[in-house]
Write a structure and sequence with these properties.
Length: 165
């Protein structure tokens, strides 16, 4: 039982150690990846802190936390890249289907309504990715070709609870 408590104490980070790890990963270009500068900033020591900062960086619990934070950054970056790619695809779909005219194999023009529905669905999916918040409800009427009308309603923002100043 005593060994488990000792292990837990060794793996738990102090507030300063956690701050060091966060600054090491999330710091701006002056701090990110710069163990000496992070150590100086967090622990308030100056001068020759190279040995102390390397010793801190060499602790298994510090390295584990840095790896964990680094994985989170990598995951966030990948998520953002996918989100941007999806947004660009949706914009392209909206552009093409909002004004494209197609005909069947006999040259008969096809109704634009299904295409416009695809465009509206792409716009809706884009709004789910990047919601736009308005202070009040707004209504917009879009008239398409062939008498097709789209009514777009942006919901009213919920009132905030009383904020203290």
């Amino acid at each position: 039982m005593k060994e488990k408590n000792t292990d837990q104490k060794e793996t738990a980070l102090t507030a300063q150690e956690e701050d060091f790890c966060n600054l090491y990963i999330y710091g701006d270009m002056d701090f990110a990846g710069q163990h000496r500068k992070c150590y100086e900033e967090i622990f308030g020591e100056t001068g020759n802190v190279a040995v102390a900062s390397r010793r801190l960086l060499g602790k298994p619990q510090i390295m584990a936390r840095i790896k964990e934070l680094s994985a989170l950054v990598q995951n966030d970056t990948e998520t953002l890249a996918v989100k941007l790619q999806v947004a660009e695809t949706l914009k392209a779909v909206m552009e093409e289907t909002s004004s494209a005219a197609y005909s069947d194999k006999f040259g008969v023009s096809l109704s634009p309504a299904p295409l416009r529905a695809v465009s509206v669905n792409a716009a809706k999916a884009l709004m789910d990715l990047y919601p736009i918040k308005h202070a009040q409800e707004a209504k917009l009427r879009i008239e398409g070709e062939g008498g097709v009308v789209f009514n777009v309603i942006v919901p009213e923002a919920k009132p905030r609870d009383h904020e203290e100043t």
